[in-house]
Amino acid sequence: QRAFDRAVYAALADRALAKAKILVEPEAIEALFKKEAAAFMATRDGRRFESYAQYLAQAGKSLAFRKEELRREVGLDRLLGEPAEITLQAEFETLRDHYSGRKVLLRHILVKQESEAKALLGRLTGGASFEALAKAHSSEKSTAKKGGLVTWIRRRGDVPEPLAALAFGLAIGKPGGPVKTIYGWHLAQVDAERKGKDVDFASVKADLLPLLRKRRRVEFMQAERDKAKVKPLW
Fold first, then answer.
1. Strands 103-111 and 176-181, how do they pair?
2. Residue pLDDT, tens place only, 78-134
3. Which of 8, 44, 159, 221 is the most exposed place for a label (fewest CB within 10 A)?
4. Of the candidates 224, 229, 230, which has an alpha carbon nearest to the alpha carbon of residue 20?
5. Cis peptide, bond prior to residue 160, ω within 30 of zero
6. Contact of 1 with 233, CB cutoff 8 Å
7. Burial of 75 (0-12, 13-18, 19+ CB in 10 A)
């Protein structure tokens, strides 16, 4: 499936770039590849490998394959153009808590049906104990036995995005939701927070650009795949 998806991505990306008459200079790809390799090898994970080529091989990629990926990424970025400043600023406001280092202590209740989640939320807003309802109704047993307690979480990377966004928008002690993830429907409550440092847009703009570029590429390619009506061969 992964090989099939990669092949479809490559074919559709190449078609889009050819249609737009976008060519990426080989020297630009070489320079970008060298920069990427040097940056990776300087990390703790990178120091476990003798070379970037060895790391790529472990991931099932050759040097030529990765350079082709970079060519398509650069080409699609040129096709789509740079994100507008206002878009970057909006993304910063969404991720301000992430860059500041703020954390919250999260509890949640996970159920399969939205109707059940809404019924439980009604009981919570009426004064029912979040811990008691989590123990009685949450389908995630590892947290249910602790009254729904998850752990201290960051804005990105610890729990699925809809749940993280909900958690970081809640007042302490006030339940909220429901939101849906691949696991089901969640209710959430924040018991405490650790405030982060002050951070401004200018200091993280360089980090936001690759995030938004990648998201725009993913969204564009998904739209291209939908238009092409791609179907598996098996």
1. unpaired
2. 999 999 999 999 999 989 999 999 999 999 999 999 999 999 999 999 999 999 999
3. 44
4. 224
5. no
6. no
7. buried
